[in-house]
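Batch manifest, entry 17 of 40.
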Amino acid sequence: EQLDTALQQQQARETGICPVRRRLFEQCFDELIRQVTVNCCERGLLLLRVRDEMRMTMAAYQTLYESSIAFGIRKALQSEQGKSDMEECIAELRDVKAELERQVAELRAKAEQVERRATELRAKAEQVERRATEL
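Output type: structure tokens
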């Protein structure tokens, strides 16, 4: 009951990581270890090991959490940098595409012009040949 009252008075969060709640539970556990140690030394030592193991586990989780946050931030920055690089590349490729489309249009126009010229020359050659055969 005292623990619940202390949790409410100090406005400890019920979920998530809460340093207030952690501190109060550690104090409660330390007191429990003290009382058990008075009655049975071996059990007290066992509870001390449990407490120390719990602290090491919590420290490992905290380190893992912090490194995952740092990793996430690094990846977000890399993604943002990669995005701007890709946007630049897309703009360059669009320019290249426009230039190539312009060249294709020019070459098609030249091909049509050459085709017309060839048709005209063939027609003139046929006329010359007809005239030559008529004479």
